[in-house]
Amino acid sequence: MTSLLETMARYEMTASWAVWPPSASYERTSDISFPAGVLDGVLHARSVILGLNPGESSIERRPWQNFHTAGKHNDHFLAEAFRDTPHWGAYMTDLLTEVNSKSATVDLSGETIGRDVAVLVEQLQSLGAADPLFIVIGTKAAKAFIEHEPVLADAVGLSRPRWVVVPHYSAANGRIHGNSPEKYRRLVLEAVNDTH
């Protein structure tokens, strides 16, 4: 049987999975690289975590590295938020393909979003996501998700997908999460327990 990692390999440079090296908690100095080793039985399509677009990275991208960059990217907030939850092992990707850390300058034109949502639809169909809970990161991603909800619903064969929006984990959103991974975890868990 083909593993999900093998099935989704063509997206390994832009997507990832909500799994990090084991830790009691995740802080800025934690190892949050994508873990090597056997992940059969861990990875799943019950939830799909969606960001707006990949951020720029000063380090060379490696397979499944998106959402696993240490330091200023605050990716350790995601590791802490999903630690010991049913969403550990979920597929993680972005609505848009544009690599840009400045969300204010991301191309949100209908043409661009439509093209990139088609790429997301391909990913969902390859993943075999039947009725995933979409965990959408941030208000800009949520706005784009809402606009394209019918297309995404059709891709997974549903009249309406289950989804929830969680705050963005970036340092720029510190007024919401207080730059605390623990507070961010609480906010995410509260949101996820209140799904649409």
Structure commentary:
The chain has 196 residues and is α/β, with parallel strands linked by helices. The chain has one domain: Uracil-DNA Glycosylase, subunit E. It is 32% helix and 13% strand. Strands 1-3-2-4-5 form a 5-stranded mixed β-sheet. Helix 2 links the parallel strand 2 and strand 3. Helix 2 packs across helix 7. The longest helix is centred in the middle third of the chain and has 18 residues. The radius of gyration is 15 Å and the shape is globular. This is Uracil-DNA glycosylase-like domain-containing protein. It comes from Arthrobacter bambusae.
What's a quick, concise take on this entry?
The protein is built from 7 helices and 5 strands, in the order αββαβαβααβαα. The protein has helices at residues 4-7, 75-82, 110-127, 139-147, 149-155, 174-177, 181-192, and strands at residues 16-17, 44-51, 90-94, 133-137, 162-166.
